[in-house]
Every structure is written in C-alpha cells, then in structure tokens.
Amino acid sequence: xxxxxxxxxxxxxxxxxxxxxxxxxxxxx
Length: 29
Known about the structure:
Shape: elongated
Largest sheet: none
Low-confidence stretches: none
Number of strands: 0
Helix content: over 70%
Mean pLDDT: 68
Number of helices: 1
C-alpha cells in the first residue's frame, strides 16, 4: 500500500504546485 508515500508525495507536491501554477503546466515525473 502507498498511503504514507502518497501523503509525502502530496506534501512535496504542495510546494511544486506553486511552481507548476506559475508555468501552468502539470508535473511530469
């Protein structure tokens, strides 16, 4: 199960969301 990983991903993405919002593009892994 990826519950803790998902939470960590969301938390890290929170900071990235601001960056993607500026560029207006989705995050690509």
